[in-house]
Design brief:
The protein has 694 residues and is an alpha/beta fold. 46% of the residues lie in helices and 11% in strands. It has 28 helices and 16 strands. Helix 12 links the parallel strand 6 and strand 7. The chain binds a DNA duplex (15 and 10 nucleotides) through helix 5, helix 10 and helix 20.
Length: 694
DNA sequence: CTGTTGAAATTTTTT
DNA sequence: ATTTCAACAG
């Protein structure tokens, strides 16, 4: 078989649009791909096609939203090339080198490039990376130093300051504009914020640390350098970008600098699934792509391979509420299937109970747990369900929300490693030092200053006289960091030593040390999987394991678990059965996001993303009654209203159910209205009784 | 200067 | 319910 017919054979599984996209030539290409339209398959085949056509895999850059997505794509590219090899023995396919494709998130790729070209932008190659909490900590230190804490009126808190800063950088907007547009209540603090940000930037430089935004900024400015920029540009022949609708202006500029004419540039996205504007992502990137690259080709994928037609009809109705969008009419050949279900639940308990029963029913029907998922707007929406699943011994993995790596004890332990890696990292250093009794912010700062003066040599601490309280631990601490800095043992050994040192501190500081200690044992396990400390520290902050269980090691094939996920973390994934819970106004859309029409529009798209994850069964639930307003310490309760994103014409496409009574058994004496919106149940009475002792 | 205690404010999504 | 802040004792 000749080369051309072999590649034809490989591409024959694609539909005509997908195929055109995969075989597109050099010019800039935008693929507008609706939910479930085989976007990944298209991208995978395009990469395979490029390699088959002789492009060096090491010169392909694949930018994805998560590391997992990149790994998955590279795995599939490899499989397509394998197939090609079988079909065409004589073909010159460089399959064994597929692993050389540069794949990862913008931030991960930035890290790789910046390590290599550190000198060109004046960075120490051993720079460490701050995650959001580290950045906020540093910002807070600066804020205190500038005396912005004791202002008459309260100064915006560190999280808000960080968000403002971040938006300026990522949206490439002036502070004044950002304040007016997104933080009007902070307008009066403009001058103070300027001082704060100036000082923050300087402090990061002193500490040789980069925050998430810096990774992009430095990459951007590296590309602007006449010599180094040219070197980086020349590294890549083809650049492919997934989830383009969730890139921000800074990222778009990076792409533009990598390929000013758009030669070799492919971007894929769906404007209807843009859900990251809080990270300054802008739909404008995808909408204006043809303007920025005048010779761009735009291809649209509309045939959905994921969901059944009844589900698609419902989701199409939902997205029709969007004000501005590229009209796409998704259709599927899978016309059979149940209509989606809308369940009105009495309260949160009923909702959890109903969902669990559905899940078990589907499992009995042959759908394993791992092909089912429960999705929700905010991480805490699943707490009750988690309790119920635990009670019933149903295994689950939760994605999104607080990550393993963000828990205090893990951050503590990592602080030692980070300090050893980069002795100028004051955030990590202070964190480790302040674990010792008798050492607080002031002494920690002094010690870090001594360390900086000595050029990062821990010997500078040898003569230091610790306060009495730290007397016993200090020599051990000193020996530990010196050994870590000298990297006397392998990485797992370093974690082990640190763990031994930290154990008594852990026991002293936390009520429940045992599970925490177990987490740290796990951390030691994963440490052995990394090449070196620097890599581990960077990769773990850039792409933290999405669920605690992910750390346990390679998944055992036959263990089955349900997926719980925030909608954001469910991006790009799909399941046979999907349950969207808490679909009530206030949760979807979130009360925090109803300030502007743009925000509400984004919440709509978020709901749309949730619904379109379902392949065969879709179930939307909302409780009528909440027993607590979030955060309220009274026992005030509230009534839930169905989300505004399910108007009548969408509702017609749903089956309706309630948890009050099995179907057909409604009490005839109840008026229609009461039956539809029950006010009271035995459960709620019991619950109110319980409040006297719980 | 640290560490503790009690009062007050604040709650989304994530690289 | 949890996190953050201010005040005070050692």
């Amino acid at each position: 078989m000749g080369e051309n017919s072999a590649i034809d054979e490989v591409l024959s599984g694609l539909n005509p649009q997908q195929r055109r996209a995969a075989q597109h030539g050099d010019g800039p290409l935008l693929i507008v791909a609706g939910a479930g339209t085989g976007k990944t398959a298209t991208l995978v085949h395009r990469v395979a096609w490029l390699i088959a056509k002789g492009v060096d895999p090491g010169r392909i850059l694949l930018l994805t939203f998560t590391r997992r997505a990149a790994a998955e794509m590279i795995r599939r590219v490899d499989s397509v090339l394998r197939q090609l090899e079988r079909l065409d023995q004589g073909a010159t396919v460089s399959r064994p080198h597929v692993g050389r494709v540069w794949g990862g998130t913008f931030h991960a790729i930035a890290t790789r490039l910046l390590r290599r070209y550190a000198k060109a932008v004046g960075l120490a190659p051993a720079f460490t990376i701050h995650d959001r909490t580290d950045s906020e900590d540093l910002l807070n230190v600066v804020r205190t130093e500038l005396g912005l804490v004791k202002t008459e009126k309260r100064f915006p808190n560190k999280g808000t300051c960080m968000a403002i800063y971040s938006r300026c950088v990522n949206a490439r907007q002036q502070l004044a504009e950002v304040l007016a547009g997104h933080f009007p209540w902070c307008k009066e603090w403009g001058d103070e914020l300027k001082r704060l940000f100036d000082a923050y930037v300087d402090r990061k430089d002193d500490a040789s640390v980069l925050d998430y935004d810096d990774l992009l900024t430095f990459w951007h400015d590296l590309l602007a350098d006449p010599q180094a920029g040219e070197l980086v540009r020349k590294r890549f022949d083809c650049i492919l970008v997934d989830e383009y609708q969730d890139t921000n202006l800074l990222q778009a500029e990076i792409l533009y600098q990598l390929s000013p004419t758009g030669k070799g540039l492919t971007v894929v996205g769906d404007d209807a699934q843009s859900i990251y504007s809080f990270r300054a992502a802008t739909v404008r990137n995808i909408l204006d792509f043809p303007k920025h690259y005048p010779n761009a080709t735009v291809l649209t994928l509309e045939q959905n391979y994921r969901s059944t037609q009844p589900i698609l009809e419902a989701t199409n109705q939902v997205i029709r509420l969007a004000k501005e969008r590229y009209a796409k009419d998704l259709w599927s050949k899978r016309s059979e299937g149940d209509r989606p279900m809308l369940v009105t639940c009495e309260d949160e308990d009923d909702q959890a109970d109903f969902v669990v029963r559905q899940i078990l029913g589907h499992r009995e029907g042959g759908i394993p747990l791992r092909r089912q998922a429960v999705l929700f707007r905010a991480s805490h929406h699943s707490i009750l369900l988690e309790a119920e699943l635990t009670r019933r011994n149903i295994p689950f993995h939760k994605y999104g929300g607080l990550k393993f790596i963000e828990t205090a004890h893990v951050k503590d332990l990592m602080a030692f490693l980070r300090l050893a890696e980069n002795p100028r990292d004051v955030v990590a250093g202070s964190r480790a030092l302040e674990l010792l009794p008798g050492i607080g912010p002031t002494k920690a700062r002094q010690l870090m200053a001594m360390l900086a003066d000595s050029g990062g040599d821990f010997a500078a601490w040898r003569e230091w006289k610790p306060p009495a309280a730290a007397g016993k631990l200090w020599p051990k601490f000193f020996a530990l960091v010196e050994d870590l800095a000298a990297a006397k043992t392998d990485l797992a050994g370093q974690v082990h030593r640190t763990r031994n040192f930290y154990q008594p501190i852990l026991e002293d500081r936390y009520d429940n040390p045992r599970p925490r200690a177990r987490d740290l044992e796990q951390l030691e396990q994963i440490a052995s999987r990394y090449r070196d400390r620097r890599t581990m520290l960077a990769e773990i902050t850039l792409d933290p394991p999405a669920s605690t269980q992910d750390l346990a090691g390679p998944p055992v094939l036959d263990d089955d678990y349900l997926v719980l996920s925030t909608i954001h973390s469910a991006k790009g994934l799909e399941w046979d059965a999907v349950y969207v819970i808490h679909a009530s106004d206030g949760n979807i859309p979130s009360d925090m996001a109803t300030g502007s029409t743009e925000e509400i529009e984004e919440e709509l798209r978020l709901f749309y993303v949730a619904l379109t994850r379902a392949k065969r069964w879709l179930c939307v639930g909302y409780p009528l009654r909440y027993y607590h307003y979030p955060g309220s310490f009274s026992d005030a309760h509230g009534y839930g209203q169905l989300t505004r994103f399910l108007p009548e014409r969408a509702l017609r496409l749903f089956r309706r159910a309630t948890t009050t009574a099995p179907e057909g058994e409604e009490d005839e004496d109840l008026g229609e209205d009461l039956a539809r919106e029950p006010r009271l149940s035995s459960r709620s009475v019991r619950k109110r009784t319980k409040r006297f002792w719980s």
